[in-house]
Write a structure and sequence with these properties.
By secondary structure, this protein is mostly helical. Strands 1-2 form a two-stranded antiparallel sheet. A hairpin with a 2-residue loop joins β1 and β2. α3 runs antiparallel to α4. The protein is globular, with a radius of gyration of 13 Å. The termini are far apart.
């Protein structure tokens, strides 16, 4: 797997991607898992993504817990364990671009 994600972690990201398909939060589409799934699978490169898109992805990842805590039917424990790696991936790219 790309970016040191295990098969289980990628499967959790794919599940979140499916759950968020077509979902809007505060009127904005939830795209963070789509984008990151494609980066991890190698169909998109971080270098090719606009900085503003990465800021949006990072913001959505930060707000993830707030949103899913209100959905008691979804056990997000496994994905919560992956979120720090996803945030670090995006944060590292944004930091690299600033330097």
């Amino acid at each position: 797997m790309h970016h040191d994600f295990t098969a289980h972690e990628v499967s959790e990201i794919e599940l979140a991607r499916e759950l968020c398909s077509g979902m809007l939060v505060d009127g904005q589409p939830v795209i963070c898992f789509d984008i990151l799934y494609e980066v991890i699978q190698g169909t998109k490169r971080m270098d090719d993504l606009p900085s503003q898109l990465l800021v949006t992805v990072y913001s959505q990842l930060k707000d993830y817990n707030r949103f899913w805590q209100e959905a008691p039917w979804y056990d997000n424990t496994a994905l919560e364990a992956v979120l720090p790696k996803l945030r670090l991936l995006v944060h590292s790219e944004l930091t690299r671009r600033r330097s």
